[in-house]
Specification:
Blueprint: H1 6-34
Length: about 35
C-alpha cells in the first residue's frame, strides 16, 4: 500500500464520478431515443 495525497484522491474520485455521470446520462439519452 502507498499513501495518496488527499488532493490526488479527491481528483480521482471526482473524475470517476464525472465518468459515471456521463455514462449514465448517455445511457438515458440512448434509452429515450429508442422509445
Amino acid at each position: 500500500m502507498y499513501t495518496i495525497t488527499p488532493r490526488l484522491q479527491i481528483t480521482v474520485s471526482s473524475s470517476v464520478k464525472i465518468k459515471m455521470i456521463s455514462e449514465s446520462s448517455s445511457q438515458s439519452i440512448s434509452g429515450l431515443k429508442k422509445s
